[in-house]
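Input record (one chain):
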Amino acid sequence: MKPDLRDLRSQVTVALVAAILGLLIVVQLHGQAGGSELQAKTAQELTSIVANQNAENDNLRAEVATLQNQLGELQADRANGATSVGQIESELRRIRAWAGLDPIAGHGIEITLNGEIDAAGLDDLLNELHNAGAEAIAIEDIRVIAATSVSGVPGALDIDGFRLGDPFTIEAIGRPEALVGSLTRVGGIIAQLAATNPGATLDVKPIDEPMTLPASKRDLVPDHGHPRL
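The corresponding structure, as predicted from the sequence alone:
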């Protein structure tokens, strides 16, 4: 792995700051050690030496201040870069979980469905959950994604090749009160299913503990489409 350019610049800057500070100390020591030589100088020579020394010290201090500012900027850039990378990684994990590529955990609801329901009714129930704000749904540990299909006849439904038994459960992650309220409202999906699928009963309950829904078992890599940047 190649060293990060910002790390190298930071290390060089720190080294330069340390070297210049050391030089200031050496200059001061030399000035103290050369006291006997200064006694032989004239007042005009001493004045010139002092002026030159002060100018040199001012230049060194200015250089130290400049390097310290550069070091602070490099450290800030490095911190901002690390923060940006962390934010991108966090967003990527969120998107992967939402898309079904990874498992996802959170609070939500559990629906237990007893009896016979047709494929259209189950599709309507899943759509209602999505519309109510469900961020992820699984039926009997089968993750529901955009390409999920429900087929079969009442009593023998199939979801992505998996035969559903009786009863079966649906788990949905989202704000529990919003999901429960949307399903159980007057004239809502449960009332509609009671009319179209009278042989099916649905029991809806919020889940207090966080639940984990699995990743999809399907291959979600497109065969023909490619990302466009």
